[in-house]
Design a protein that fits this description.
Layout lengths: L1 E5 L3 H12 L3 E5 L3 H8 L10 H10 L4 E4 L2 H6 L3 E4 L14 H13 L4 E5 L7 H10 L6 E5 L9 H6 L4 E4 L5 H11 L9 E4 L1 H32 L3 H9 L20 H14 L5 H25 L6 E5 L14 H11 L3 E5 L4 H8 L4 E2 L12 E4 L11 H7 L4 E4 L6 H6 L3 E3 L4
Parallel strand pairs: 1-2, 1-4, 2-3, 4-5, 5-6, 7-8, 9-10, 9-12, 10-11, 12-13, 13-14
The chain binds nicotinamide-adenine-dinucleotide (NAD).
Nicotinamide-adenine-dinucleotide (NAD) binds next to helix 1 and helix 5.
Length: 434
């Protein structure tokens, strides 16, 4: 099929590459000319495992994956047009739909034949209807609007897209033509039996917010369990295993830490609270999930203050800046809150991340020292803090760490080391809920 994907970010680029990988002809569109020029030159604007190779392969194959700023031409050439632009948080906490609706208008203006327009961006209930109205003002062509939320996780986005747990397709009642095209498009991705769930657009839109909200809830819940474990003298790791082995609960998203971040959970939780409030409903659990998460981002620095007293003039080494491993994304990363507070308290920060160094440089400039190698960050630091659980931090050379740090003190925000082992190695070791 011929497909256009408007918005070539974390979602749009993965979507475009994966659709091309299955033989479709895909045009990835963006208004960011520098990004499109970079992609055309074979350079990647983001880091995502497996993506670069897939983009290169399909870009090289004639016509299969193209990059353009010409939305109108891409729309005219396509049967299906995805909207995958950002839906950032607006001032009042709601999802800001200006980019989605601007793209809908441009699609409507460019359309010359029947087109399926697919909302891939995370958008509140009712957006499919607004996209439909916006397009209808611009064209007399027939078209369908489909809601197709994306459940991929950054750090494993290609794998998730190629082998989804399920595909959710929201269609308007009776729109069999769009449903058939969408099922055909997703058939190669669901051969192993993953269901394609078709439903009304409102339920599809709600599914995405419900999924992110329940995952965020599990994280905040476990962070509170960890905090109570500290108060009562229990070990959250043991508790996690005990409850995770219950099939009704399962093992995912039960790891306590320094709070969740990223471009999705924080904004999607707030957007659902807001859209419920707009209809007179107080989403109490989600308000607490958000409040707990904000407080959790403070706890590691609280522990540092409890250990050192004043942090003024102290040097803290940070391992991990991205909001999670295997991405360079720092949007709402706990590291940002932690670094800002450390700087406010007069501490110096030396940080290392395998992929997020340039992102961090854009955010902090020379206010922190960014190191190219993990051990460089430790040189002369008063303590090490683990903020993101990259695999390369799991089995470090502890003797080398001891030699480089001024004193053997580790604040582990991700519980990646064993407290007994760290004690045996002579470290003063703080973690979460143990
Ligand atoms: P992003 O910020 O990485 O990318 C958005 C892209 O859209 C940017 O390249 C931007 O230049 C482009 N854009 C903005 N306005 C445009 C316009 N008028 N025309 C063409 N391009 C335009 O965002 P993202 O992380 O890819 O997220 C996109 C959407 O998908 C959001 O709604 C997000 O909530 C949702 N989502 C994200 C993830 C994730 O893991 N990042 C997962 C599932 C869903």
């Amino acid at each position: 099929m011929r497909i256009a994907v408007v918005g070539t970010g974390y979602v749009g680029l993965v979507l475009g590459a994966c659709l091309a990988e299955n033989g479709n002809n895909v045009a990835c569109v963006d208004i960011d000319e520098a990004k499109i020029a970079m992609l055309r030159a074979g350079r990647m604007p983001i880091y995502e495992p497996g993506l670069e190779e897939m983009v290169r392969r399909n870009h090289a194959a004639e016509d299969r994956l193209a990059f353009t700023t010409d939305l109108a031409a891409a729309v005219r050439a396509s049967e299906i047009v995805f909207i995958a632009v950002g839906t950032p948080q607006g001032e009042d906490g709601s999802a800001d739909l200006q980019h989605v609706l601007a793209v809908a208008r441009d699609i409507g203006r460019a359309m010359t034949k029947y087109t399926v327009v697919v909302d891939k961006s995370t958008v509140p209930v009712g957006t499919a209807a607004r996209v439909r109205e916006t397009i209808a003002k611009e064209t007399s062509c027939e078209f369908s609007v489909v809601s197709n939320p994306e459940f991929m996780k950054q750090g494993a986005a290609v794998e998730d897209f190629m082998k989804p747990d399920r595909v959710v397709i929201g269609i308007e009642p009776g729109d069999e033509r769009a449903a058939a095209l969408m099922k055909e498009l997703y058939a190669p991705f669901t051969r192993t039996g993953a269901p394609i769930l078709t439903m009304d657009t409102a339920s599809a839109e709600m599914s995405k917010y419900a999924a992110n909200s329940i995952l965020a809830t599990r994280i905040s819940f476990m962070n509170e369990i960890a905090n109570v474990c500290e108060a009562v003298g229990a070990d959250v790791d043991e508790v996690r295993k005990a409850i995770g082995s219950d099939r009704r609960i399962g093992t995912s998203f039960l790891f306590p830490g320094v709070g969740y971040g990223g471009s999705c959970f924080p904004k999607d939780v707030r957007a659902l609270v807001k859209s419920a409030a707009d209809r007179g409903y107080d989403f109490q659990i989600l308000r607490a999930v958000e409040a707990v998460n904000c407080a959790q981002k403070e706890r590691l620095v609280d522990k540092m203050q409890a250990h050192f007293g004043r942090l003024e003039g102290r040097t803290l080494a940070l391992w991990g800046l991205a909001f999670k491993p295997r991405t360079d994304d720092m949007r709402e990363a706990p590291a940002i809150a932690i670094i800002n507070r450390l700087l406010r308290l007069g501490a110096l920060v030396r940080a290392y991340d395998p992929e997020a160094t340039s992102t961090a440089r854009r955010l902090f400039g020379d206010r922190i020292a960014l190191c190219d190698k993990s051990y460089d960050a430790l040189a002369g630091a008063d303590a090490l803090a683990i903020i993101t659980e990259w695999n390369e931090f799991r089995e470090p050379d502890f003797q080398r760490m001891r030699r480089l740090l001024k004193a053997p003190v580790v604040f582990d925000g991700r519980n990646i080391y064993s407290p007994a082992h760290m004690r045996a190695l002579g470290f003063t070791y703080y973690s979460i809920g143990r």
